[in-house]
Amino acid sequence: VLCTPSKRSLTNKKNKKIRSLTIKKNKKINDLDKCKEEKAYNALIYAASAQVDDDRIVILLLDNKADVNGIPSVHHVHLSNTPLTAAAAKGNDKIVKTLLRRRADVNRCKSQKGWTPVMLACEFGHGPVLQSLIKESDGSADLYAKTTRIHRDDEPWTALKLAARNGHEALIQMLLDAMGEQLVGDNEAMRQ
């Protein structure tokens, strides 16, 4: 698949009718758009990573059978390799909620670096996104996940470490509160 204007223009709001027809007639909605060798995205990832947090295009794509967990490539090295990681990295909270309601896997990531949506929210300081990832996933978000790549300090990074490294105090508190709730829930389940 070559770099197709139709996929990049999904976030262009100038002509909604053409955009809608393009999506509905596109039988290869999950195909990759290989504009550059190192990047390979599908239409849903383009829409999820838009500069504007507008979920209408995402909903239209999902209604037309776009894969909510679609991953471009096992060898993909970028951080935003799923629709959910793309939306989390951009701070698109409305899109994050839409993807989670459509059963996006909050812990799925296959980039070589192993970044989760929770980690990306912490890296870039997106508090509302982190809150949505924790609450909308019904506690299934892995708050303890580690990156697969060893970093300068010879340690893999976690969401908590990323939030602390970037000085996002509110996110640190959010993570600690959520981790405490998970521990309390685990202890109560063990007692029964």
TrEMBL record:
Instruction: List the GO molecular function terms.
Output: RNA binding; RNA nuclease activity
Biological process per Gene Ontology, one example term: RNA processing
Mind listing the UniProt keywords for this protein, alphabetically?
Answer: ANK repeat, Repeat
Q: Which PROSITE patterns match?
A: ANK_REP_REGION (PS50297), ANK_REPEAT (PS50088)
Q: Which domain of life is it from?
A: Eukaryota
| The keyword Repeat belongs to this UniProt entry's keyword annotation | yes
**SMART domains the record matches:** ANK
Please report the residue spans annotated as repeat (ANK): 79-111
Q: Name one Pfam family in it.
A: Ank_2
- Recorded protein name is Uncharacterized protein
Which species is this record about? Answer: Eutreptiella gymnastica
